[in-house]
Amino acid sequence: MSTMYVALFGILIGSALIQFYLVAGFVFRLRKWRPLLLADAACPRAAVILSLRGGDPFLSRCIGGLLTQDYPNYDVLFVVDNEEDPAMPILKQMLKGTRFDRYRVEVLTNPLSTCSLKCSGLVQAIESLPASTKIVAFLDADTIPHATWLRELCTGLEANDVGAATGNRWYRPTQTSQGSLIRYLWNAAAIVQMYWYGIAWGGTLAMKLDSMRRAGILESWRRAYAEDTMVRASLAKIGEKVVFVPSLMMINREDCTVASFQSWVKRQLLSARLYHPFWILVVGHGIGSALVFLWGFGLCAAAAVQGDIIGAASVFLALFFFHGFLTCLLPWIERAVFNIAKERGEEDSWPNRPSWLAVFWLGLATQWIYSWALLSCLFLKRFNWRGIDYEVRGPFDIKMMGYRPYQPASKAQDNHSI
User: Fold this and answer.
1) How far is CA 388 from the centre of its chain?
2) How far apart are CA 369 and CA 258, in angstroms?
3) Where are the beta strands (DSSP E) in 213-320?
4) Which residues, including other chains, have CB under 8 Å from residue 297's CB and lie 6 or more apart?
């Protein structure tokens, strides 16, 4: 048993050091967040596209932020799923009396059966852009853009070898329910991976239109499930890259249940499975982390059965301190994120701050739920996204199984996060 103990301790120490290195690198990048923004004269003509299906909880604030951007030359295109969609009255109310007049509202006229409705909406909007448009920006309805959001994105695209600029999200829910905290914990780990893998996030993303066309991204979207994860690999074909803009860590305050988190995280993982160039590493990390804990608890139980109380206690304490160490990295990331948000005038306090002990135990629950979702995603052939069923035949072989207008099942099930 002593050899097994040594092997386990070595793996835990090595894993802790690797996690510390990855988090430290990400936090260091966040702390160097202040960009030298483009002057008005240097701002190329841009268009922002928001594809809507359903009335998201923070949609009015999202629209309000879009209409008040500190950017001299931009258009806003809203693509709404249908005339009766719950988003339409919210949109009309926000547009009523606005001083901003460079917007257009379109209804999705021809939902493609070969891709998601979101991809259909984005393709339709881009095809109608004027020839003078140089940059296209995208966001989700749960993103609340601050005044310099678009200028920061376009500043990230200055270099010739950069085809896309992106931010990321940080969950700070208004309620500290189990589901909301589990998503908060999972996302905190996921964004570190996304940073190191160079993965774009569609909730805050801008691309050079010329780069999109040369990389064939529009053609890919016509046959795709998700628009963002593939961007890195697509741009690499033309020698361009995705850059992360640390000032665009966007705070999301939506709540969710454990059930809605499970369906949400499966969609995130499906996107990674289909389009992530390092998917095998994602699987290895997720499953490997769970196996280490299973191995550790198995050793602990075996030692106790054999009467080796010291050995059992040593293994238990090793697992406890390892997980505790990872939990202690969380506030380090959060403080860096909220230093950015605070500069934008956003509140940086929890409505009801969860205890460290609650976060510790929910972190273990998050690991098991994530591992189960990861295993389920490996064999996922059909999924439902905002009331539409899709069949997955391959990365660019997606089948929409019939269209119907958006109808939320219930308030508890209606989770809008993308």
Assistant:
1) 21
2) 9
3) 241-252
4) 319
pTM over 0.90: yes
Answer for the pair 220, 226: CB distance below 8 angstroms, yes or no: no
Interior CA angle at 340 toward 15 and 211, to 5°? 80
CA–CA distance, 124 with 229 (Å, rounded to integer): 20
| pLDDT tens by residue, 196-248 | 999 999 999 999 999 999 999 999 999 999 999 999 999 999 999 999 999 99
Span 308-365, pLDDT tens digits: 898 899 999 999 999 999 999 999 999 999 999 998 888 767 777 788 888 999 999 9
The amino acid occupying position 150 is L
CA distance 103 to 47: 9
Q: Cα–Cα distances in Å, from 407 out to 297, 307, 353?
A: 45, 59, 34
Residues in the chain: 418
Q: What is the DSSP string of 206-222?
A: EEEHHHHHHTTHHHHHT
pLDDT in tens, 105-139: 999 998 999 999 999 999 999 999 999 999 999 99
Answer for the pair 406, 86: CB distance below 8 angstroms, yes or no: yes
CA 330, CA 30: separation in Å to the nearest integer? Answer: 14
The residue ranges of DSSP E strands in 46-161, in sequence order, are 46-52, 74-80, 103-107, 135-139
User: How far apart (Å, rounded) are the C-alpha atoms in residues 387 and 407?
Assistant: 7
137: β partners: 48, 206
CB atoms within 10 A of CB 393: 10
Which amino acid makes up residue 43?
Answer: C
d(CA 37, CA 42): 10
Q: How far apart are CA 251 and CA 247, in angstroms?
A: 11
Max Cα-Cα span within the chain: 77
All residues at 6 or more sequence positions from 181 whose CB lies less than 8 Å from its CB, including other chains? 173, 354, 358, 359, 362
